[in-house]
Amino acid sequence: MQSAVRHYAIVTAAYWGFTLTDGALRMLVLLHFYKLGYSPMTLAFLFLLYEAAGIAANLLGGWLAARYGITRMLVVGLSTQIAGFVLLSLLQPHWSVALSVAWVVAAQGVCGVAKDLTKTASKSAIKITQAGMQQQGGQGQLFKWVAWFTGSKNAMKGLGFFAGGLLLQTLGFEGSLWCMAALLAVVLAAVLLTLPQLMGKGRASKSARELFAKNSGINALAAARVALFGARDVWFVVSLPVFLYSAGWSFTMVGSFLAAWTMAYGAVQALAPQLVRRSADGLSSEVPAARAWSAALALVPALLAAAVFVEVAQLQWVVVGGLAVFGFAFAVNSSVHSYLILAYAGSEKAAEDVGFYYAANALGRFLGTLLSGVLYQWGGLLYALIGSALMLLACWVITLRLPLQRGLDRTAA
Description:
- The chain has helices spanning 2-35, 40-68, 70-89, 97-131, 138-194, 208-211, 216-236, 239-246, 251-275, 286-309, 315-344, 350-399, and strands spanning 213-214, 411-412.
- The protein is mainly alpha-helical.
- It has one domain (2-198, 210-406): Up-down Bundle (Growth Hormone, Chain: A).
- Strands 1-2 form a two-stranded antiparallel sheet.
- Residues 132-137 and 408-413 have low confidence and may be disordered.
């Protein structure tokens, strides 16, 4: 019991350090290159390989974690992020735009691999450490651990947004990257010294067919996750920051607002177990909750799109208020989904199941990031909000297929 709690605490702390620098990196890149005059489409392109790399990283990371242990994958993820920071720091101001974009995209790809290797390893560690504690709290304890982990992680990401703006202003682009690399080096050393090297090592799939064979709950949840995170990023990644800046907000105001929003969003995620009725089997109340919150969430961007279309007075503040409502409902949705994947996953292949699910998460972020730049360039915030509403409608429809019982059979995905 004590060792499980200790391992959970160590993994959570390590992921906090990683997420702090990851949030700072996003703000660094977005603000630095927008200041240099890059268009919304180009800004979105800078993040595309970062998101695309996560699709393969999650699938491969889950398999590697099952084969070689979660701790080793956590170490690989942290080391890869440090390498990505070093690559970005080598960017030179006299390079051409094409070379600069190519270099940043490649370095962001490295960081994307790092993020999802670290995320898959960390989330899998929760399932492994909780597996031996079923008699100590069962599925209720799992939901609490997942909610706290996810919520605190996003609070750290919000703090990272603020830190990114502050570092950029005080240390500059290159100095900020070296500072973050040094912080992660300390986290890496702590992980190497404290976690069991073979934690989570199990039987890995022996073929691609076996790797992609998931039960119906995981398949449906992965599809819903694509739509859910695409719906968030389609207006959050590029459209919203550019809209606020064009409305007269300064970079500091934009960064501080996004930081505050993300930290509040993380706090709601941590409280999700108190907002969702619990069941003894871990599914009969939680699955209907996922459906209800998805339906409610879809209404928010639809109503905001209507407000943008009719050009209501004080539109920027209407959008800010709508974002607060969106963040609350999205946080509960995300937390319930993060719990359900571990509830559906089998302990023997937890890392692979989590990796498959977060590959879908990365695919949603990729599509959302791409569409955020494209739709904003085509039709401004209105098009981005319409895209978000349609994705959330799809998410709700998919959640109707979530099973109310854990399926032990695995069918080809």
